[in-house]
């Protein structure tokens, strides 16, 4: 079986394999089964299925880093919910033995060999650390008025939209994710912060849409069931600031509707965002569909989003023309591709 066939097979058989792994783990740990009962069994199956989905993508794209990063993330997330590394490790070892493939085993072993590493605050590294901290603190106190006033004062003092987006909002959103991962804030608090930040961004549209036009168009969208929107929205806004028409479609658009819109609009470029590793297949399929359609096969296609941070070559295996790590670079890369294309 090739790597890709194995990845497809694991994806197709994930529910069945996950159930088998969970049974083996519960049989080896009767005290766990007794303590957590039916809910424990359900969680165990869900977790194993989740591990399988990430492993399948790491195999499919020959990108072990995707699985290694996932296990590092899962370890911290589960530990914060009092599920020890031993449980996760046992689950992964059972998964490895059940699959019995050398390449899959090598990826799982690489993840198991990783030393424990606690994540660190995203606010330490930003040049706008004090402002980012003040904004986040206000949101975590459910005080949107102070949050907005804090940003307004900084903008009046000269903070640009570029700095607001990349040095304040981006690290704050990532820090919110880290706090959720560490079980320090709830899903509801994360939703409140994200919704407040989206409302904040909307206040700058007169400025964002007011730049002189350069006669270029880009469609910006998330793929598949992707729900993460702020990153792609920033990308669309940076293109608007550079004078492009940035058609921001948002996330979670049916594939056919998105492909039809791209072909109808005939843009110079398309920007596709992927956050969750298990949405990579949707990006690959969307790129293939656009390349196949004579109405839009000329458009340059770039990809980006959280998942690409783990492997800088991943974009190539999706068939994209390029990748950018942030919204600023996205504009630069697309300009380069346009120049090279003539
Ligand atoms: C807000 C949020 C959500 C919200 C999104 C709401 C919305 N309307 O956007 C909701 C609640 C829906 C959500 C759901 C989930 N989330 Co979430 N989410 C986040 C969070 C906290 C912030 C995302 C964000 O706004 N980032 C800020 C932006 C600016 O950063 P960015 O996306 O990286 O974008 C920049 C670059 O990557 C690049 N870029 C982005 N897109 C593109 C596209 C192109 C073409 C280019 C060139 C560049 C580019 O430019 C951007 C700007 O510079 C992240 C934390 C994080 N680290 O990002 C977690 C996070 C991504 N989520 C996570 C998880 C686990 C989930 C869920 C599975 C939770 C669950 N159990 O249901 C679901 C999955 C939903 C789905 N089907 O997609 C994990 C993922 C971990 C992993 N191992 O995969 C994270 C990392 C949180 C964490 N630390 O644990 N989430």
Element pattern in H and E:
HHHHHHHHHHHEHEHEHEHEH
Distance between the termini: 42 Å
**C-alpha-based Rg, rounded:** 22 Å
Shape, per Cα inertia axes: globular
| Strand count | 5
Low-pLDDT segments, ≥5 res: none
- The proportion of residues forming helix, as a percent range, comes to 55-70%
Describe the oligomeric state of these chains in a short phrase. single chain
Strand percent estimate = 5-15%
Task: Identify the bound ligands.
Answer: cobalamin
Number of H- or I-type helical stretches: 16
Structural class: alpha/beta
Largest sheet, spatial ordering of strands: 2-1-3-4-5
The biggest beta sheet is recorded as: 5 strands, parallel
Mean pLDDT: 95
Concise summary:
The protein has 342 residues and is an alpha/beta fold. Helices cover 65% and strands 7% of the residues.
């Amino acid at each position: 079986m090739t790597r890709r066939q194995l990845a497809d097979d694991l994806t197709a058989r994930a529910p069945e394999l996950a159930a088998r792994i969970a049974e083996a783990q519960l049989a080896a740990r009767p005290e766990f089964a007794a303590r957590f009962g039916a809910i424990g069994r359900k969680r165990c199956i869900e977790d194993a299925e989740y591990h399988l989905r990430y492993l399948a993508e790491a195999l499919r794209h020959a990108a072990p880093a995707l699985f290694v990063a996932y296990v590092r993330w899962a370890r911290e997330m589960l530990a914060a919910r009092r599920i020890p590394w031993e449980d996760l490790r046992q689950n992964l070892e059972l998964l490895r033995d059940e699959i019995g493939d050398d390449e899959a085993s090598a990826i799982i072993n690489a993840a198991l060999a990783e030393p424990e590493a606690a994540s660190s605050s995203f606010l330490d590294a930003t040049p706008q650390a004090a402002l980012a901290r003040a904004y986040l603190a206000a949101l975590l106190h459910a005080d949107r008025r102070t949050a907005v006033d804090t940003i307004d004062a900084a903008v009046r003092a000269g903070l640009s939209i570029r700095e607001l987006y990349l040095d304040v909002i981006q690290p704050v959103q990532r820090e919110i994710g880290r706090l959720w991962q560490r079980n320090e804030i709830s899903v509801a608090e994360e939703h409140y912060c994200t919704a407040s930040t989206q409302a904040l961004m909307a206040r700058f549209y007169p400025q964002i849409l007011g730049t002189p036009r350069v006669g270029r168009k880009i469609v910006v969208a998330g793929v598949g069931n992707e729900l993460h929107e702020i990153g792609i929205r920033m990308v669309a806004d940076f293109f608007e600031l550079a004078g492009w028409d940035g058609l921001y479609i948002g996330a979670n658009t049916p594939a056919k509707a998105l492909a039809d819109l791209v072909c109808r609009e005939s843009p110079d470029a398309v920007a596709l965002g992927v956050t969750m590793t298990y949405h990579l297949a949707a990006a690959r399929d969307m790129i293939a569909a656009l390349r196949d359609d004579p109405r839009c096969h000329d458009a340059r296609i770039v990809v980006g989003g959280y998942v690409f941070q783990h492997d800088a070559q991943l974009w190539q295996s999706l068939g994209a023309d390029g990748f950018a790590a942030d919204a600023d670079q996205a504009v630069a890369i697309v300009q380069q591709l346009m120049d090279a294309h003539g």
